[in-house]
Amino acid sequence: xxxxxxxxxxxxxxxxxxxxxxxxxxxxxxxxxxxxxxxxxxxxxxxxxxxxxxxxxxxxxxxxxxxxxxxxxxxxxxxxxxxxxxxxxxxxxxxxxxxxxxxxxxxxxxxxxxxxxxxxxxxxxxxxxxxxxxxxxxxxxxxxxxxxxxxxxxxxxxxxxxxxxxxxxxxxxxxxxxxxxxxxxxxxxxxxxxxxxxxxxxxxxxxxxxxxxxxxxxxxxxxxxxxxxxxxxxxxxxxxxxxxxxxxxxxxxxxxxxxxxxxxxxxxxxxxxxxxxxxxxxxxxxxxxxxxxxxxxxxxxxxxxxxxxxxxxxxxxxxxxxxxxxxxxxxxxxxxxxxxxxxxxxxxxxxxxxxxxxxxxxxxxxxxxxxxxxxxxxxxxxxxxxxxxxxxxxxxxxxxxxxxxxxxxxxxxxxxxxxxxxxxxxxxxxxxxxxxx
Length: 437
Ligand code: ACO
What we know:
mainly alpha
């Protein structure tokens, strides 16, 4: 059997090293022994944007980007989307196994009974301007919960962590719905414990004067499926932030707020909002080829296309396309779908996109469904953050229980000045770069 080691010949010194290979990976710390002399710090790896660095070991989500495979805890996303409720999948992601009937009942019961926001938190939300971006409101309000639950700082107490997990999964839809009502100037609607997770979310979004909200089953199921698809995605930008902030032992509320901030960027979860802006800008199907030419000429990107890991069709995009048909059967077709389908058709046959293996990602079609459901594009990333809270919590919990856990603290290659002497202010000259500021 071949040895699981890597031999390295350092041509600077002619020294020979052998480092272990485990699961196709060498440990960066094993390279530190490679030195040119006693004064040398030792070899480091340089990997901006983590293009080829595993930052942790994880048993939560598996992705094979070349084959377009996504599994939570070993179960294919297609099976989970077809057969489970969102809270069932949330349990699986957090605890590692699908729940028994009794476990599911208890889990749903706990989450349902942690959906209310403290009235002071509600008033905190009321303080935002009428036109505040919902994602800014969401991030700030989740962070503000840290002040309501100071005991959550006890991150090494498992029972305490469990309680925060119930609270966070329970409260994020309430916060999200309140940001939506706030932007419309409508009174906030309290949670209804008789309803399922997605039905209750719809109730808090859309109930007006009726005494009981009656959710359309096709729409609540579509929302549940969208939540399942967005629940986790291994070490993406926001999960990495969750682990990095959590590694300092910050409480889960501020850690989730930081992860949600990472999600809000247009290259990550903010892309769904950008896709709708792009479809608006294109305006009609016949203008798609010109838009694609513009992207190929280097003017902007095709939003909702491309992925760091998927070099094949994102399996979530395929399920979303199916869910879109179910939604449109109730709401009527979103005219943007025609433009999106044409964009996909042309891009998938175009040498530029084929060569770079750029396929539609989860954000390409999600916005079209959200819009058909009645949401403004500014709400789209908040809708992503609700289910992703589950993934962030699972990643956080796994990180805290990892025996190799330490505060996340990368190295750098310093490229600044060497030591130089202080210059008094009257002797300083205006620097060219500073003058242009
Ligand atoms: N449109 C046009 N060209 C693209 C696109 C795109 N959407 N995405 C990547 N490319 C091109 C790049 O310009 C680059 O071309 P080059 O080799 O000629 O320089 C090549 O494809 C490789 O792209 P990178 O930027 O190196 O890929 P990276 O892995 O760093 O980025 C990312 C991945 C950020 C998702 C990128 O594809 C992108 O910006 N897509 C649009 C935004 C988007 O949809 N984000 C959502 C991702 S899914 C999620 O986070 C939930």
